[in-house]
Amino acid sequence: MAERKLRILVGKPGLDGHDRGAKIIARAFRDAGFEVIYTGLHQTPEQIVSAAIQEDVDCIGLSILSGAHNTLLPRVSDLLKEKQADDIVFFAGGVIPADDIPGLKSAGIKEVFTPGTSTEDLVNWVRENVRPRA
Amino acid sequence: MSLAERVLQGEVRAAARLMRDIDDGLRSAVDELKLLYPHTGSAYVIGITGPPGAGKSTLVDQLTAAYRKQGKRVGIVAVDPTSPFTGGAILGDRIRMNRHADDDGVFIRSLATRGHLGGISRSTGDVVNVLDAMGMEVVIIETVGVGQDEIDIVRMAHTTVVVMVPGLGDDIQAIKAGILEIGDVFVVNKADRDEADRTVRDLAVMLEMNPDKDRGWRPKVLKTEASRNRGIEELVSELEAHRQYLHSSGAINHFLEEKNASLFLDILKERLFAEVYGHIHVNGRFRAVMEGMMTRRTDPYTAVEEILAERFGIGKG
């Protein structure tokens, strides 16, 4: 009767003022049958990584609009490596200039989604790129 | 090294993994739990229950801060509901507890009910055992937002706190059966609201009428404003009073007897069911019974008796 269920952490690092988009995404993941650990606003990279480890998630999806993505997102990647938790797939979405994306990807962010991405595309991406831990 | 050994050394990642294996129902998790069981039983387990939006998560956050001040390590199990339609869940209790996320002395785990009724998940007791074995001195279980009848928490927690808020209903609600019978401590949260004193009174009257479900301990009704950290100290000392009462009165033995019996019987039920269910699925019997019932040629009562007789040599009579 064992069945692996996909667990995903959705949160917002830094100083963004609202989390409407993140909530819509959390809801879409819920409707896709995932267990979404929603940590809300104003998270430090340390809090995010620690929560991801305690919750044993398969995937972290962060939404960021503040412009601090080049600092905060690589910091999350580094912490995951430091804690030997970089098997957790990490993606981000938000207002992120195209020029910044290659740098983020080489810092360990698996995918970067920009405004206009449909929730359906996101769910499909997760289905294709994240497997619940064996 | 096994997951269990790593848990006993306090390794967070191993504990988190084992909790996942437990939740997902892996057989290997059972073997790990066997190794951990002798190392459990020292944590003080507090249950926090009450209707959705009563402030349970915020209260858990404040209690955690209070216990951290005493230097105690705190484990938290926060349960939220699974969608019956998609199997998905949004586990949002951590939002109120984030300040403890990077404190090494706090371990927070969110669980989805995954179809289990009763206010907690099937895995909750085992997850509590993992936290206990890894050295958490206080474990706080936050149930899903409950209505009237979800009372599994009493078997799990040494002390059950029922959190209410002003204005949820008249005093007839307070004399109905269910969660209002299970509180060792009652909290009226959001006590700055107008109706707070009346809610406290209604609860107090209800408790007054209880034919003492447990002579010797009289549950009190406390007022809190969790979001402003008001009333928390009083709540912590009431919890401590109840914990001491359990030990000084010997009521702890009764609690443990009931807890152990229900744990044992739950595992027995689950394993028996899995055994029989697996068997009739593989040999095609399940399908045959379903077809027979469709035409009313087979009745489910006889079918069960026959299957038990075949499998265990028992059943009829």
Provide the CATH top-level class of chain A: Alpha Beta
Rounded mean pLDDT of chain A is 92
Q: How many distinct domains of chain A? A: 1
Which two chains have the most extensive interface, and how many residues on each? Answer: A-B, 36 and 32 residues
Order of helices and strands of chain A: EHEHEHEHEH
CATH top level of the largest domain in chain B is: Alpha Beta
- Which structural class best describes the helix and strand composition of chain B? alpha/beta
Shape of chain A: globular
Roughly what percent helix of chain A? 25-40%
- Give the strand tally of chain A: 5
- Give the overall silhouette of chain B: globular
- Please, what is the oligomeric state? heterodimer
**Could you give a short account of the major beta sheet of chain A?**
5 strands, parallel
Taking Cα atoms only, what radius of gyration of chain B do you get, to the nearest Å? Answer: 22 Å
E-strand count of chain B: 8
Q: Looking at this structure, what is the CATH superfamily of the largest domain in chain B?
A: P-loop containing nucleotide triphosphate hydrolases
Here the CATH topology of chain A equals Rossmann fold
The parts of chain B where pLDDT drops under 50 for at least 5 residues are: none
Query: Going across the major beta sheet of chain A, what is the strand order?
Result: 2-1-3-4-5
Distance between the termini of chain A: 15 Å
At the fold tier of CATH, the topology name of the largest domain in chain B is Rossmann fold
Describe this structure in words.
The complex is a heterodimer of chains A (134) and B (317). With 134 residues, chain A is α/β, with parallel strands linked by helices. Chain A has helices spanning 20-31, 45-54, 69-82, 101-106, 119-129, and strands spanning 7-13, 35-43, 59-64, 89-94, 111-113. Chain A has one domain: Cobalamin-binding domain (Rossmann fold), CATH 3.40.50.280. A 5-stranded parallel β-sheet of chain A has the order 2-1-3-4-5, with helices on both faces. In chain A, helix 1 crosses helix 5 (119-129). The radius of gyration of chain A is 14 Å and the shape is globular. Chain B is globular and about 60 Å long. Chain B has a 7-stranded parallel β-sheet with strand order 4-2-5-1-6-7-8, with helices on both faces. The interface between A and B is medium-sized, with 36 and 32 residues. Strand 2 of chain A pairs parallel with strand 3 (89-91) of chain B.
